[in-house]
Amino acid sequence: MHANAIAEWTEKLARSGAPVAAPLRSPVGRLVEQVHWDDSLWCVSACAVVEGETYDDEELTPDRAAAWGRVLADVHRTGSSVANPSAGTPTPPPSLAGLPAGPDVVGMLHGDPEPDNVVWPADADAPVLVDLDDAAMGWFAADVAFALRAWSPPAGAPPLDHPIVAAFVAGYRDIRPLTDAELGWLPLFARWQAETQLSRLVPVAAESPDESWPQWAHDLAEKIRRLMAELSHALLA
User: In 228-237, which positions are buried (b, 16+ CB within 10 angstroms) versus exposed (e)?
Assistant: First the structure.
């Protein structure tokens, strides 16, 4: 989706009461502005500050995971009701071409609903999702698979009996349906997402490390190389 379409959808989502950070308009009333920086033209947007805590994967408890599942389900339920009809339906890769694509399983997705995009305000009972830059039309189960990557093997689906995974799914089901058939698609989505991630890392890894780089950049480059090797091995298995 185009940046303007994402911002407009997020604004409608926030106005409908969904648990997301509300976008802010510029002084001239636009949700997205273009700015020149470092000889490039960038599209930028802003959102309201959400004061609160974020939790690392290992800090999540089943209760927190259930609340996280509920807010993602709320975004799916509310987001699809306010989606721009021009957003259309996703164009699946061959591996997903046979999946049903009706409104009960396809709609607007957050796109990156991992724990680092979940903020827990001190004055609220439920968390809030931030960073909707990757919002798009797709299968709701794809968002679930992406959310639970930290509890999944490389290019694989999460074990549904893991306490965090089970709590997340139960919380999600408190708000909207998530059928066993959809959970059965998680391996397909996990593999597709791994293939996509690997293809995006290839040009990043193509840049040779430079002695002038700070240590954190060398560490990041090494982490990317290890991740690519791990994904490649899993996808070839």
Answer: beebeebeee
